[in-house]
Structures are given as structure tokens and as C-alpha cells.
């Protein structure tokens, strides 16, 4: 229950990051999700990523919609402002917030119900505008809070807890995002935190819209046999394609090249993402081959994971708009007021 | 039967949409303004790009009346499709000009109207080469004829044309040629000037001609708004266009050339208001503009903003509803839906501008109130104010103005306090303190539309829930003290009507002022008049109403929405509030009010 205060006890020997904070400084309130919920592992990966990147919590803004996943921003980064908005409308809140203050770091948490049904329009348009934010879909194929209805990401034929099979085709947020021109697209699994943390770090450092679709099984309504979003089914059919390793800008480049690494991409702040190819044929910088590859494996029932697509050269919204580098919210009024004399000049045109 | 009307008549121009008449009609209106004669222009246009009928009505009033009078003295009938109706609309003793290239003797069935036929098409076909010019110049040629018929100052017209086409002198020449053609024809064929005529005055000094969407957009610039997001919808689009254009001119950083503003065209109205809330939450002054259908779509978010206490400014440029209605016609039809926008016990702060001057000044008030009260403020303007050409006194700006950003703890205040809680009524005015993201982790809290207690935490406890919503209700008592007071017009020069008074809002104002003066002059009564400027109602509203047996509530909608609001919110006996309603989509005229009020008084005396 989130109204129970979580005791803040830090072990004196806890390691600190470069800004002197421990991992406890990146925690939030106590989770109210079901025991074993995949979402909680994701929250923990998020905390780990921000901790490792040494980002001050108060320089992060957390936004979400409505649903189990959208509750989670309360459970991490308690020192960051959060906005639990309305169902499916988080992208517009994030867009406006980003318009007002481009200097903060934005994390949006959503679910398959929130993003792929009611919020599909806003999701698509946030991608189209290339809002500089990390957008997580905690994807479990069901509506949890309303007790187990299929969501738009449920696979055709996947069964509900009571046995009914889903008759409709799923919407795959990864394919959708790549086709809409999303500049960073990854897929992870809540049961695989080791791969999740570097991918989240890369997403945070990406300048532009970074989508992470994270399969996060619902232990209460969608973890049975017959479900294609259960822990067991996901583990059995996971096909890891590309492992992304993140190196922060200030970290020393190790002289020795990792033998598994076939590509390095430098992010805007100088950090680097190194790709280790798991599958020989995969190229995460080629949009067309990425789509083909994902489709091919989807047809075999395989869930392709990893950092699936990355384009670092596209301009995010403010660059497109030509906005001031300084946040709109902190511009002094003296810079915004054209003054009485100008008003007189303008009105001369109205005679 | 023709009486002389010097500087006091109405010209209505009936055109076909998309034929370039708007610029010619605008030029005609502006030339009269430049002769120093008070004038306004109202555009009755179709929801169409080309082909449907459109009208422009110019009222010339030496006394400075800016509303529709309800009469037409001179009809320029350029649309064959609407000849019959246009002729029927002319007041007895009036005139009708038409294109006599195709003579229409069959329409000359009114012997109380003088018909002036000018072969405009024939003249232009002969004088101009291109097909486009032949169509466009017909409009300029009838303006030329009016220069002769109404005695318009030719120098004024020529200067206007030169200014308009300063970068395209060959177009100026063609226009001047068309003006002269019309002028010469009228001079040769009619007895010029007509008894309807113009004579220079000095009554427009210190005034400008402008529409309310332009001034609202400019007002938002001066108020310090930096973020806007909107979805195109008539008749609000030009408000955002104005804001964008002024920003391009006034908000480029002189050093870097970067924009000190952010304009985002949203994918729909839901997203538009969402972006506005996101930006305001993050400390920018942000707004959107829409019309009735957009307010319906924004309702869910408006409830969140009310409950989570996020400032926002929304301009609702009202148009004829329900549903798509008549999108290019005016009404005041969103009063109730705006006042209670969203599900549950929600209430919104409203402002009611009456003209483009108010649109400018109320922009500043709207942003100040939104941030002071931490709640959405809806500026209920309308198509008549927003898109028509009004003559207003030049707008003044006080450079000492500083925005009221409301109660926001800064980094230092946060550092100095033990703990921050979002929804505490620290000052007893029911307005809590807020913090902005990015400032200090001590100020961090979670905005939520779900149940929350006064500390900002999630709750499902009844007493914690009611504690917060009761404070929100009290916050509206505070709001009532902050909205602009009503404007009360009392004329002591002659005996006042004791039993009845007038009450209205917004764009009805001009027509009511004229109607009042007419009734005073004609001995039909001297009625006190109150114009409400904001909701929740200022305490002076009830005080005014209490003085009279009955108050005539004048508004432009079918269901007497302002009256409903007064009845519900102020607990007034509905029998004391008598509705007078105009809702045909045309801006209410002074004639309508004189007749309506007179009839109501008669009924009252009879009862």
C-alpha cells in the first residue's frame, strides 16, 4: 500500500555514484502491485539506470497515463516530480512538459492498454514529433485493473484466464514505432534485468523519442498456459537479437575492442552504445531490414528483443521548432514582453 | 421617400465566397474609418472555400454604435443566387446596386427601393486580360462606384491601395483603374452622391480597427505565454495564427535568433489541452484556443486540471451549436458546458470579454487568475468578437506590469522548510502552494487525478477526499473575489426605471448600450444595465439583481444559459430573471433588444 511509509534505512557501506547518491536515493514509495509483477522489476531496472548515470532525481520528470504500469512512477525516483494523467493521454502531457522545459529528463511509463488502444493516436504523434523522452510500454497483453480483458497487444489465439481465445490481430508497438519513424526502438523482458539496464541507459541518453517495449507478464491475469505473454512462454520464445552495451561519455574507452561488438554509435552527449550482434543478419541502423527481421520472427511466434533500431541523427522537437536552448519556463518576463512602444507600432497597422 | 442619412447607415455586400470580395470590402470599410467616421464590419460567411453566398455588413455610425442595427440601407447585390432575399432585406427608402451586365427587371418588384444597375462584368471583361482579374476587379469597381455614390475621399482610397500593394505597384495600378471605372460610371449615370452619404469627421482618432482573435493572440504574447498547442477549428484558428505571427515578429531572441515561444499543432483537442497542462505543470504560461466541440473533447482533462489544480488558459471562441452546428455563425452557447466542464463536481473559472479590447486585457487577467488560483480559466469569447472588424480605442499597455505567477515555492524556500505538502491550505484562502519540476527534490510530489489527501498522497479515505474537495469549493469563493467585477451602467440624468433592469454578458454589450440610449431618447424607459465579466459571480452581481423586481437577462443562446447559471449559483427566484434570447447565429442587433425589452416591459405592466 503506497500510503504506508517505506522506511528509509541505508546501509552505511552502500556504494555511491558520482554525485554521491546511493541506490536508495533513487527509490520511491512502496509498490502496490501484485507480488511478482513484472512491472516492479522494470522499476528496479529504471532506478539502477538513473543511479548508474548519476542523474539527479529532481532533474527527472515522470509522466504516466492510467493502468497498473502508470502507477509505477510512484515506486521509483521519489525525488522527481511525477504526473499521473488520464488514460492514454500521457504523451500530450509529456509533450507540453517538454515544450516548457527542455532541460529536464523525461520518462513516460505506459502500458499496452494505455498506449495501444485509447492512447494510440497520442503515442503515434509523440513519435512523429520526436519528443526527447524515454517511453516505456510495460506490455502484458491484458487490462489488469479492470480484471483481465484482452488488450490490443494480445496475440491472436492467446487465451484469457477463463479460456476464451483472442480473435484479433495484435498491435506490435515496436513495428508500429519503427514504421512511424521512431528514432530509438528496443524490446526487453522484465525477467531479464541484466539486459534491461543498459538498454534503459541508452534510451535515457538518446536525444529524441526512445521507445522501449518491455514484455512484463501479469502474474494475476495473464501468466497461465495458453497465454503468449506468460513468463514461461516469453522465456521459451525470446529471441535476443542485439545486446546493447552502454558506455557513459566520461568513462574511459577501453583500448581493447570487445570482440563481439560490431558497431558503436555515439550519442549526442558523447556517450556510446556498443552493439553486440547475437544474430548475424541483424542491423539495428537499417529500418527496412529491422522491420523484415522482426516480422519474419513474429510469424514464427518468436519475440525478438534487444535494441532493435537506432537513429541518432534525427532532430528532436525543439531543434525542429528552433526553440531557445533555455527552458521556456525559466525565461524572464523581460524577454517575453514586447513593451508599450511596440504595441503602439503594431496598432499603427490597424488604422 | 428617401431621407438623407449622413454618416449613419448600413451597407451590406452580398458576394459569392472565393471571388476576392473580402479585400475590396475591407478596403471600403477602412476608407470610411480613415475619413474619421466610426465604422464596423461584420462578416457573415459560409463554411465553404468557394461558391456559397457570403455577406459583409458595414455599419457607419456617427454616434459610434458598433453593433448591428438590424437594418440595411444599401445592398450591393453581387450574388445572383441571393438577389431576391437581399432585395427583401433592404429597408424602405433604401438602395440596391447590382451587376446589370445581365439586366434583371424581374427583381425590381419593390418600388420603395432604388435599384442602381452597373454593368460591372461587362466593364471588367473589357478592361482586364486575365480571367482572375476580370473576377477580382468587379469588386474593386463597385467600390469605385461607391466612392462617387457615397462621396468617399478618393485620396484615402488611393493611399490605401498604394499601401496594400506597396511591393506590387502594377497591382496598385490595376486596382486604381478599376476604382476609376466604377467611379466614372456612377458619376455619369446617377445623381451623385446619394442621400446616404459620408462626410469627414474626427471621430476615429485614437482608435483602431481589429478583430478579437488578433487582440487575444497579442494579449497572450504580452501576458508572457510561451507555449501554445491547438487543433484547427473555426472560429478559433485565427487566434493561434495571430499568436504565432506576433511571436515570429516579437519573440525571436535578438542574440541567438532562437524562438522564445513554442507553437505545436496538436493531433486533436484532447492532445492540445494535454500539452497545455503539461507545460503549465512545468512552469510555462501555456494556452489553447478552440470552440464548442473542442471544449467537449477537452472536458476530461479540464476535470483533471480542476482536481489536481493545474493552471491553464483556454479561449473558447463560441459558434453556433449543438454538434457541428453552423461553424461560421455566432452564439454564446457554451456558458453552461464551460462553467461545469468535466464529470463530477467540477467548476471552471470563466471570463466574458465584450469586444477586442477586452480580449487583449482579459488575456493578461486569464493567465494571472489561472496561476493565482491554480485552475483552468476559460475565456468565453465568440465568433462575432473574434472574427469581425471592430473599432476600439487604441490599446494601452503598462510596462510596469509583472505577471502574477501565484504561489510557487522556489528553491530557497524549499531548502528552508522541513517538508513540502502539495494541497495544504497554508494561507486560509483555500489556495495551496505548488512547486515546479526540476527545482528541488524536496518539492517533488505526484500529480494525480485519483483521490488524494491534503498532503498530496493517494487516498481512498472518505474524510481525506472530502477535505480536499471542500477546500476546492472554498477556493471558488476566493475566485469570486478575484474575477473582474461586473460593469454597472446607471444613468442618473433622467428618472430611472425602478422595477426592471438589464443584465448580459460579452458581445451583447454594444447592442444593449445602443438599445438603452434609444429607449432613453424615445421615452421608453431608462434601464440600469449590468454586464457580468466573470464566473464564479462577483458579489456585486447579486447585489445588483436584488434591487429590481425583474431583471431581463439578454444572451445569445436558446436555453438562457446565463440565466440558468445565475439561478443555480446565486439561488435567485427564476421568476425574477426574464430571458431575452437571440440565437439565430447573427450578432444580436440593437433593434432586437429595443423591441424585446419594450415588449417585456409591456407584459410586465399587464401582469
What characteristics describe this protein?
heterodimer; A: alpha/beta; Rossmann fold; ten-stranded mixed beta sheet; globular; B: 607 residues; alpha/beta; Pyruvate-ferredoxin Oxidoreductase, domain 3; 4 domains; seven-stranded mixed beta sheet; 19% strand
Characterization of the model:
The complex is a heterodimer of chains A (351) and B (607). With 351 residues, chain A is of the alpha/beta class. Chain A is built from eleven helices and twelve strands. Chain A has helices at residues 38-53, 68-71, 90-100, 112-118, 120-129, 173-179, 193-205, 231-237, 287-299, 317-321, 340-348, and strands at 60-64, 81-84, 105-111, 133-139, 142-143, 149-150, 184-189, 209-215, 238-247, 261-266, 272-277, 303-310. In chain A, strand 10 and strand 11 form a beta hairpin. Mean pLDDT of chain A is 90; it is low at 253-257. In chain B, helix 1 (21-34) packs across helix 5 (154-164), helix 3 crosses helix 4 and helix 7 runs parallel beside helix 12 (356-373). Chain B has 607 residues and is α/β, with parallel strands linked by helices. The radius of gyration of chain B is 27 Å and the shape is globular. Chain B has four domains: 5-205, Pyruvate-ferredoxin oxidoreductase, PFOR, domain III (Pyruvate-ferredoxin Oxidoreductase, domain 3), CATH 3.40.920.10; 210-393, Rossmann fold (3-Layer(aba) Sandwich), CATH 3.40.50; 411-482, no CATH class; 487-606, Rossmann fold, CATH 3.40.50.920. The two termini of chain B are 40 Å apart. The model of chain B has no long low-confidence stretch (mean pLDDT 96).
CATH architecture of chain A: 3-Layer(aba) Sandwich
Q: Please provide the count of β strands of chain A.
A: 12
CATH superfamily of chain A: Thiamin diphosphate (ThDP)-binding fold, Pyr/PP domains
Give the name of the CATH architecture of the largest domain in chain B: 3-Layer(aba) Sandwich
Regions with little confidence, pLDDT below 50 for 5+ residues of chain B = none
Q: How much is the radius of gyration of chain A in Å?
A: 21 Å
CATH T-level fold name of chain A: Rossmann fold
> Sheet with the most strands of chain B?
7 strands, mixed
Quaternary state of this entry equals: heterodimer
Assess the beta-strand content of chain A as a share of residues: 15-25%
Category by helix and strand content of chain A:
alpha/beta
CATH level-4 homologous superfamily of the largest domain in chain B: Pyruvate-ferredoxin oxidoreductase, PFOR, domain III
Count of distinct structural domains of chain A: 1
Shape of chain B: globular
Could you say what the CATH topology of the largest domain in chain B is called?
Pyruvate-ferredoxin Oxidoreductase, domain 3
Strand order of the largest sheet of chain A: 2-1-3-4-8-7-12-9-11-10
State the major sheet of chain A: 10 strands, mixed
- Spatial gap, N to C terminus of chain A: 65 Å
Q: Return Rg of chain B in Å.
A: 27 Å
User: Which percent range fits the helix content of chain B?
Assistant: 25-40%
